[in-house]
Structures are given as C-alpha cells and as structure tokens.
C-alpha cells in the first residue's frame, strides 16, 4: 500500500518493515498496551539491522523473527 500524496509505502505496524510479512508482534496486532508479553520485548535488534531501514520507518514496526534470525545467521557465516 502506498501513500497517495507522497508515493511512499505506508508502514503497517503488524508487518515487518524489511520483508513485509507479519511480524507477530502482539502489541501491533491487538493494539494492546506496551506491558503485554511479546517476543519482541525480549529480542535484541542489532543496530546494523535497524540501519537497513529508511529513517522514517525506524522504531515504527517490529522487524520479524525471520529477518532477525537471517541477519544473525549471515553474521555467523561471515566469520
């Protein structure tokens, strides 16, 4: 989905901003308060992964587990 004025993609909180797939974030899916348990609350998101996002998309939606795992795997393979 794109913004009709800017032509930029519309960021959906329940989708990973990297791959566009559902990010499985409980807070984004249910609109629940931040005190709800969710996998993303205990995950460490590497800054290098966050840096792959356009600045306007940072800290707006959770990067999904698959993208986080793929990043960690690619870092291990480079060693």
Automatic annotation (TrEMBL):
It comes from the Bacteria. InterPro entries: Cys_rich_CWC (IPR032720). This is Cysteine-rich CWC family protein. It comes from Candidatus Tenderia electrophaga.
């Amino acid at each position: 989905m794109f913004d009709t004025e800017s032509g930029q993609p519309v960021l959906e909180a329940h989708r990973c901003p990297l791959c566009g797939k559902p990010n499985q974030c409980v807070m984004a899916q249910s609109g629940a308060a931040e005190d709800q348990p969710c996998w993303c609350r205990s995950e460490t998101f590497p800054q290098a992964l966050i840096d792959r996002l356009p600045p306007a998309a940072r800290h707006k939606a959770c990067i999904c587990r698959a993208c986080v795992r793929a990043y960690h795997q690619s870092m291990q393979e480079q060693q």
